[in-house]
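To: structure desk
From: M.T.
Subject: fold request, one chain
Message: Could you run this one when you get a chance? Sequence is below, nothing fancy, just the single chain.
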Amino acid sequence: MERLTNMGFRHVGKWEINGEKLLFNLDACADMKNVLYAFISNNTVMYIGKTTQALKKRMYGYQNPGPTQSTNIKANGFITDKLTTGTTVAIYALPDNGLLHYGGFHVNLAAGLEDSIVATLKPTWNKMGI
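Reply: Done. Structure tokens follow.
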């Protein structure tokens, strides 16, 4: 967790449950695109993901997975399981500030870092095939 915050990840929201309905609450970065995000529970990185769409739209996919969206279905289940046992699930994000370029091309920070972070930190939910 400390490695993520040291590189600029910041708390932007949390997951909640209302009855059986999974809900997300974003305090920041909701409309940002090209975001690398993490789900954190008990100060442990559970999942690392990236999105090219607005962060709130990506979280909505986890909240309301379609019948063929296996990644969203699995994540929804993992998050719901944590919340129903009284454990919190925070959302952290590292937005792409658009400043990274190589050879005149913009480098998508999220796309460039996701695989390396997952390989190094081995978040449980990433390893389970989410």
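Reply (cont.): The chain has a mean pLDDT of 93. Let me know if you need anything else for the meeting.
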